[in-house]
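hey so u asked for the seq, here:
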Amino acid sequence: MSFLERLPLDCLRGDGSGVACATTVDDVLDELFRAAYHGGINGRGQGGAYARLFAWDALYALMGLPVHVPFLEAVRRTADHRWVRFVASTPWFHHDTADLGLAVLDPSRTRVAVLAATDTDVTAPDASARP
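ran it, structure tokens below
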């Protein structure tokens, strides 16, 4: 987490703490597929084939792969990357089950890609403004 906190990421700015853990590409792909399939809290999910396509597009983007790389080659390359899941208690996240933080470090250890997402159905009013 200390490495991620040094990156200029809006989702980690502000007071708050965070936790990061190593994960697998299977976990990342599952998370990407479920997000595309179900949509957000009030979003519209995609059908199975489109959700799969969107999940793979996101995985290719995280790995910095061009779209012409064959699927099996992309799968082979996933083992060379380091996959991380993170969550933070910063104001950027809405602190619900839709919060998502994923990071991937490429094999050369010179490129890190981060995907952070949050979703909410209502913006909560500031508690200090209540009578």
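Helices lie at 2-5, 25-38, 48-63, 71-78. The radius of gyration is 16 Å.
lmk if thats what u needed
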